[in-house]
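Sequence in, structure out.
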Amino acid sequence: MPTDPRGLRSDAPLFDAWLTFHEQALTPFTIPGHKQRHDLVGDVVAGDVPLYAGLDTMKLTTGVLLDAEARAAQLWGADVCRFSTGGATHANQALALAVAGDGDQVVVSRTLHRSMLLGLVLAGLTPVWVRPEVDAATGLPLGVAPATVAAALAEHPNARAVFVGDPSYVGTVGDVAGLADAAHHHGVPLIVDAAWAAHFGFHPDLPAHPMALGADAMVTSAHKTLPAWSQAAIILANTERIDASRLDAAVEATATTSPAGAILASIDASRALLARDGEALLGTAIAATRAARDHLRQVPGLTVVDGPHVDPAKLILVLSGTGADGNAIEQDLLLAGMPVESADRDVLIAIVSLADTVEGVTRLADAIAASVERHRSAPRPVVGAASYSVDPVTVMPPRQAFFSAATPVPVEDAVGRVSAELTAP
């Protein structure tokens, strides 16, 4: 029987509806086709309850989704909120459709997730590319500078919106308040892909979330740093510069008509947990990450990325000074049962969430330190990813390139030609 170990249901209408469904002895004549039987394909379908004719009727008589979204909007200080079962991918693409139209220019960070770049294709938007600042010592992005956005808007006064990602995938945090000021000075909204920042703003040691810093809309993935199902995401927006009805239309146009009730309920439960216990749980995670950083600083040559402009719950390590290959370290960690979020030759990233324990994080730090020593070699220079420094040349809108005839060519023959595919993080 599904449980509610922290007693969240009284403040989580979708979660309550999910629990209630399982507490009833139903014989459903609705989708999904497994009819809640686990003797056919097993527990892989356990907990799979639809929104319609599950958590709510097909007639939407009780409005539990609307209630849950309103509670989330209040928690993040937004005018409106929409839950998504299609991840930040769906949310980003909905916002692209919501704020501009076919042929319009928008200022876009070069390092945004491919979902937003495909949103440009869907909406027919033309990007004005801006690049983040890059830390020469680590090769990692630091965020797009407000002055860079201001210059782009001054050069392209017809641009309709600014799209940035903050924090970055690697955990560095930019000046969102400054970006909001730059966008608003030119009368356009700032949209922030904050997929990795669902926890921001809910502990004094964490950065404020984008909505608190002046962003007009924010996308965040509840499943990345909160205990929600995969695919769970949230769209938050203020309506001074974003049309609420158009946003709703864009969300519905790009969403499934069979949303998974369990995913929605997990967003609601995670929101309730964050509101009630988030500060305490996050405090433990932050303290554990801080201790891991202190331990790993003792490893010669290992750079531990830290400071006021870094997510305190992300462990970011630059390996070049040790000579060790991050891919080899990742294999050691996999064998030890501790997969990490990302690893390449020079950078290793581990995510710590409010679900982690001090013991688990300590074990990870010990394993990393031992693996670095096992694979230590001659130090090498820091080499940042090309995506942080390359200025794309736009010869046609992404939508036109996407639908144009294309021919595969060897990479050495691609110079000077138009890319038919995304080259993006």
